Amino acid sequence: MKTFSFNRGRRGVTLVELMVAVSILSIAILGLTGAFQYISKSIRISRARTLAINLAQEKVENLKNLSYYKLLLTTDTVTDNNFSPALVYDKSNYPPEDIYTGGITFKRGTYVAFAQTDNNVISTVSYTYPDPGLKQITSYVLWQQDGTWRKLVLQNLYENPYVNTLDGTIRGTVSPSVAGANVRVVENPDWNATTNASGVYNFNVVTGTYTVRVTSAGWYDANRPMVSVSTGGTTIVDLTMTQIGSGTVSGSVWASTIALISQVVAATTTACGSCGGSLKDIEYVELFNPTTAAINVAEDGPVNQYLELEYRDESSAFNVDDHGGAGQNFDLTYVSTWIPPSKYYLIANATFFYVAGNWMTADAHYDNLSGTLKDYIRNDTGGGGKAGGVRLVRYDGLLLDAVGWCDADNSPPADSYKGTFLDLDALDGMNKGDQLVRISSPLVVSNTIGRAYDSDSNTRDFYFPHAGVFSGLLYRPFSTADAAQTVLTGKPMPGAFVESDDLLGTSTRSYTAYMSSPSNGTLIPYAPYGLYPAATGTWTLTVSSGLYLAQIGTVTVTQFISIGAPNASSSPTWVSAGSPFVRLSSSGVGGFISGRVTDVGNRGINNIQVLAAGVLKYTNTSGYYFAYVSSGPITVIANPNNADTRFVQTLSETVVYTGQVTEQDFILSQGGVIQGYATTGTSALPNVIFTANRGGYQYGSGSTDNTGYFYIKNMTTGTYVVSPALDPMQTSDPVSTDTYVSGANAVFAASFTVIGALGSLAGTVTYGSDLHMTGALIVASTKAISSTPPSIVASSAGAQTTYYSASSKADGTYTLDLRGPATYYISVYVPIIGATSVTITTKTFSDVVVNPSITTPYNIVVP
């Protein structure tokens, strides 16, 4: 037994005191131990939460490194009932992951959905909803702590700036049930639709406020401003159109371009003033200038002769040339050398004579002033008729005009008449006192209206009041000394183009019609036109044929009324009351484009729009169009923007010359539409361009809308190769498809699954025997890689080697997307953290093969 002794000189610690001290110390230690438990628990919770945040953020960043379209929507889900409410996350595209790090096992889930904003509130919508251009990524990180499930949720948004979010709808009805009308948003004409047979339309727009307009041929446009469309909402816009009132404009078209023979008298016995007043047989030829410019006959006499007069007889021995020929010649003496506009020119065998109650002075004569007048134009004086004709020839030999007649047994020479000659068999040719007079219009032979009618046929153009019926000459001759006369007609111009600048934009062509001459019952041709429908209002009419043009302003059209143009109120007015005769001249600073629009069967197509240099016209019932346009190079488009959905749009570049008509015909094939669909496999892909090619040439293209559908319009009949125009890093299934367009129908090409043309390397990064949990840099290139990470210089990146890189994740795994097929060098750079510094350990691998659309397992072990 061990004994203790105490020093009485110093007081010792009693047992009681010692026990008390031990008790106090024990209590303090127990309190400190309890506090440490809670501190340790707090550290563990904080550490787990920090790791969860890192894992969630890592997942979000990895997903946002994908392209917008490669970020797949969640369509197949798994439900986690460990929480209330239960969590739902992706089962297929981004399946749940188990990650062990920091001594804790985490579960990570992902959910990707379409998102939209409304008044700054973000909400998600179904994956079947049209792509709003915004996706929401939700990353869930789950773990157990003290037997209780914990969670951390991190959300982020991924926007596609290239998508117009067509998240609203405009629909309605156009009254009164106007089919085929185009309804569009004025601010963005790409947002449009065509009404169906009931006048109903429907199309999608981006949320906003717009003006909606409807247009259709034959109707006034209708507008609705301040149309507001909310997100996901439908706005009803019913529109009422008013039909454009219409009437008819009519008239006839004429042109005069040359001097004409207007009268021939072979012989009339009358006083000859240049013969001392004695009676002589006078013969003469009267010319008329129906044009708007003076005509030169012979400025300096025979030396500079422009118009030549010739006589041709049934016997060539009696032919007479103008001058200088081998036989007989008129050898005219010129008193006047010009024919003023709308005036006559008199050529006779006497200088001054009396006829039809008037003393006449010839403008040119061929008498010898000896009192014996030449008799060149033969008649049947002395018995025996004569067939012959008078010719008017230009200086270069071009025949301008001719009038011929026969006798009882002979026809005139073939070159002495136009069309048909006058049949004078019963009279045995021309007699003394007979006259041939050109008519002034189909219904008029006149002494007061210009003798201008010219259908290129003597039988129709001339009247023959002969002496056997009438006493004396009914129609006097005129010369340059007489007043100008009104010109009503001229040469009938069938086929002339007639158009108005009215709202309906119709055009027409004059045509050949006939009326019976009151003088002899002959059917006389003329060229009437009827422009219908012409919109009500006041317009300008343009009429053209060849180089010749007339414009008539202030033509006022009244609904359901047919008016003539020109008329009393037009500008210019008609030259004779009640006569809507359009006479063409060669004036004008613009040019003309005309043609016919037909189908492949050469059948004219009615009511087809033709846009020529900005001037919009419509074809008539025969498919013809006509427009007065600026001269120079122009673009002409038939059926622009497939206005008639049955046919294609066709374009032509041409040149229009001042005062001339350029012909431009179009053949429109039936216009089919190629339709298709693009998807990632789970969601629609907008803004993917598809092309339709044939024989190596592109015939059309279209881009997918927000629903993933594309439409290639304006396609003619035939087979096309349809394929998406993708980035080199993408591919599709199918790559292309052959699509046959048979007519004006929509043909579905295919559903294309667009896949990034990338292969992947995926695996783990191990340092020594442990997974390197995070921060290892993996770099890949088709060329050798340096031992230190390569420097990327933005200013010269285009000329540098292409590098691909990724980092290892928190669980030691990595995924690296690479173009394939190709063989790569792979370098890994692993940071090793020491007590006082960080070192980089590097290792390089070669001959790593990557194929498109395949994930190749590849674990990296360092060193």
| Overall mean confidence score, pLDDT | 84
Shape: rod-shaped
Percent strand: over 45%
Q: Helicity level, as a percent range?
A: under 10%
- What structural class do the secondary elements suggest? mainly beta
Question: Total helix count?
Answer: 2
Main beta sheet: strand number and arrangement?
7 strands, mixed
Gyration radius (Cα, Å) is 50 Å
- What's the N-to-C terminus distance? 68 Å
> Low-confidence stretches at least 5 residues in length (pLDDT < 50)?
1-9
Order the strands across the largest sheet as they lie in space. 26-31-28-20-19-34-35
Count of individual beta strands: 70
Describe this entry's structure for a reader.
Helices cover 6% and strands 47% of the residues. By secondary structure, it is mainly beta. The longest helix is centred in the N-terminal third of the chain and has 50 residues, at 15-64. The protein is built from two helices and 70 strands. The strands form 19 sheets. It has a seven-stranded mixed beta sheet with strand order 26-31-28-20-19-34-35. Strands 3, 4, 5, 6 and 7 form a five-stranded antiparallel beta sheet that branches.
